[in-house]
Amino acid sequence: MKVVVASDSFKGSMSSFEVGQAVKKGILQFDPDVDVDIAGIADGGDGSMDVIRHAGLDAEEIKFKTTDLMGWPLDSVYLMTKYKKAPMAIIETANTVGINLIYKPTSTTFEEATSFGVGTQIRDAIKKGAKRVIVLTGGTGVSDGGLGMLQALGVNFFDQNNHILGRDQNLLNTDFQRIDSLGDVVSQFSHIDIMIATDVDNHYAGINGAQGVFRPQKGGTPEQIKKFDQKMQYFQEIVDNELDFNLSVVDGAGAAGGIGGALAVIGGRVVSGFDVIARLINLRQRMESADLVITGEGRLDFQSHHGKAPYRVAEVAREMDIPVFAIGGQIDASLHHFEKMDVPFFSIQRGPISRKQAMNPKTALGNITCLIRNLMRLWKM
């Protein structure tokens, strides 16, 4: 018997691979002869690069000195591999501007955080010959519309006195009036295939934009949100006038605080983060001979069907007619999308404990192992 474990991370507690190991332990406690394949999975958010590395992709880890979202020196990494014999870079935005790099998001960090560091990585990858760049978005602590990233790539921003604005600030928190070199940067990237891997479909600005949707987790106040959203709408107008490109209709442009939209401006195309990673780790091929698939993530809720890894894994399993069930650290009251697919889902909790206790890795790993051991008994009855 073969079981494929394709779980996302339990954010703030366990990585995808650690979850997989706990599931494997529970399976082998039930039957030590089961073939367990840990196919860590992600949807483009934080932890995606670790999933790719564990999959054994033939890639070189490029160590790169840059700055984090608050402008502090940072030793970051990205991957270089090959696609159709041409160099390809894989960059995870959370490695450089992740919300985990801030002790606690506040209104101050919200107005100061910049995506400049992401741009320096992209620029370095291009210098090293990359013809395709996959940017894994998600888990970021920035809300600067990706303008800092564009600045690092060569776009200049000017204030009302025609003074060029420095790189050590969130440009949405300035009174920038005009930009130049945008067309030149777009031309420079015309021969580069940029893939914006995301699990969200939010627009750049407006009601469904990056500011309003993701503000609560990044520390912004309502006043800051209004101001930043207006500046992003102003940037959309500049882009429309200079490039005849309507950024406002691009689904996924709101990814990573607007980094998705900034990448779209220079020719990037939005793709499913799950699909990209599933191809890189050969998920379908690994599932072909499986008798059972186990998936999950830290919180299974109404967002799980919006491109999230567990839902997509379940879809693939159902397409291949393979039994599948999902586990989570927290389960929402209604998961009708899983129910429509006849996918059973289970909480790993064994009793009433605090959130802090539940997210303790030792506790969570033990809970997963216990649950899986008993689910295997039930499944084999």
From TrEMBL:
Q: Name one GO biological process term.
A: organic acid phosphorylation
Q: Which GO terms describe its molecular function?
A: glycerate kinase activity
User: What are the alphabetically sorted keywords of the record?
Assistant: Kinase, Transferase
Does the keyword field hold DNA repair? no
Task: Check the UniProt entry and state the signal peptide residues, or none.
Answer: none
Q: Return the Pfam families for the record.
A: Gly_kinase
Provide the family line: Belongs to the glycerate kinase type-1 family.
Protein name in the entry: Glycerate kinase
